[in-house]
Design brief:
140 residues, mainly beta, Immunoglobulin-like, 3-stranded antiparallel sheet, 1 helix
Length: 140
């Protein structure tokens, strides 16, 4: 005996529609969360780090140094409101935090370290700490 099945094209169209997140134009999705891309260069007396941080304000960036470990963290706040006269047509917000830590091959002289932020790129100049010579103790 043959089995008949009813086909509804709208059924396929709406299947999973309410399960997937709906993206509004102009706002980042979860896949587009802020990211820190790094370039680390070693010079004779210092490490130079370039960190790309588009869309983040200078006052929202924090850098900490602990020996050879450098941590960069930032918070991104973005609000967008589209108005037509006195009616608000769309209001969107995005808040996100991002952080990145890495270890360099030598301790950093944190007192002489410097940072500047220009056009979405954070530049860190991290001078190397003078290596201490190991001392061999004579046993009496």
């Amino acid at each position: 005996m043959t089995k008949l099945t009813r086909y509804d094209p709208l059924d396929d169209f709406f299947r999973g529609f309410f399960v997937r997140p709906v993206e509004m134009g102009g706002m980042p999705s979860l896949a587009e969360a802020p990211d820190i891309k790094l370039d680390v260069k070693e010079q004779e007396k210092a490490f130079v780090v370039h960190a790309e941080m588009p869309g983040i304000k200078k006052e929202d960036i924090h850098v900490s140094i602990d020996g050879p470990v450098v941590s960069i963290s930032a918070e991104r706040k973005e609000e967008k409101e589209v108005k037509e006269g006195e009616r608000v047509l769309r209001s969107e917000r995005y808040f996100g935090k991002v952080s990145r830590s890495f270890q360099l091959g030598q301790d950093i002289d944190d007192n002489a370290a410097s940072a500047k932020f220009v056009d979405g790129v954070l530049e860190l100049t991290l001078p190397k700490k003078a290596a201490t010579q190991s001392k061999r103790l004579a046993i009496d």
